[in-house]
Design goal:
- Strands 1-2-3-4-5-6-7-8 form an 8-stranded parallel sheet, with helices on both faces.
- The protein has 216 residues and is α/β, with parallel strands linked by helices.
- The relative contact order is 0.14.
- The chain is built from 7 helices and 8 strands.
- Helix 1 runs parallel beside helix 2 and helix 6 packs across helix 7.
- The two termini are 15 Å apart.
- The radius of gyration is 16 Å and the shape is globular.
- Strand 6, helix 4 and strand 7 form a beta-alpha-beta unit.
């Protein structure tokens, strides 16, 4: 079983594949499989934040909705940073109340996210999607009981490949995010870097998935 923890593409349901499709509360797309839902910091529209939060709360009662996300903080977008933090905090409180994991979008704001997690006493799992940073930041993610997810950059970034190769078994997810790269290709590279079979990578990710998504 292949698990794609974060994708922006819908595919034909396959018995060997679980994909968590990213949904926005203001633009719900028909989808037969699993999904996440959240207010992305880049796309915050203050005129309908309240309605978006209601929609998120309504959807997380579905067994098909596995996570709130992607949500987070982004210092490169024009959206006011204080507004981003406020919307992020509100969604985290929903996640904590309903005990549902969170898929994190983060651009140059890791310390702020760690601080908010600690201040609000958030204990649900954070999955930092599209991890492409250094080993020091990776260790901070792990020390804060969060999980990195690796995608397309794993195919071409030598430093990231070294970091991934040294990770323990219970410390990663895999994804294709918004790329057209098949998730199978990312699993193949992960197996190569870990010097093991694709089936072994599948088992590792499945175990992690079962641990994080305990309500599935």
């Amino acid at each position: 079983m292949l698990i794609n923890i974060h994708t922006h593409h819908t595919t034909t349901p396959e018995p060997y594949l679980i994909e968590v499709y990213n949904q926005y509360p203001w633009n719900i797309q028909p989808h037969e499989g699993y999904y996440s839902i959240g207010i992305h910091p880049v796309f915050i529209n203050q005129s309908h934040i309240a309605d978006d939060l209601i929609t998120i709360t309504q959807h997380i009662s579905s067994h098909k909705c596995l996570a709130i996300g992607e949500i987070g903080l982004d210092k490169l977008t024009s959206v006011d940073f204080e507004v981003q933090k406020n919307v992020f905090k509100q969604q985290l409180c929903i996640a904590q109340e309903h005990q549902i994991p969170v898929i994190i979008h983060c651009v140059r704001a890791y310390q702020e996210i760690f601080e908010i997690r600690k201040k609000l006493n958030i204990t649900v799992p954070f999955i930092f999607h599209g991890f492409n940073k250094n080993v020091q930041l990776l260790q901070q993610i792990l020390d804060n009981y969060c999980i990195p997810s690796f995608g397309k950059n794993l195919l071409h970034n030598p430093n990231l490949q070294t970091i991934f190769a040294n990770l323990s078994e219970n410390q990663f997810f895999l994804e294709n995010d918004d790329s057209q790269i098949p998730i199978q290709e990312i699993y193949t590279k992960a197996a190569e870097l870990k010097n093991c079979s694709i089936e072994e990578i599948e088992a590792i990710v499945q175990n992690q998935f079962s641990r994080v998504f305990i309500n599935l």
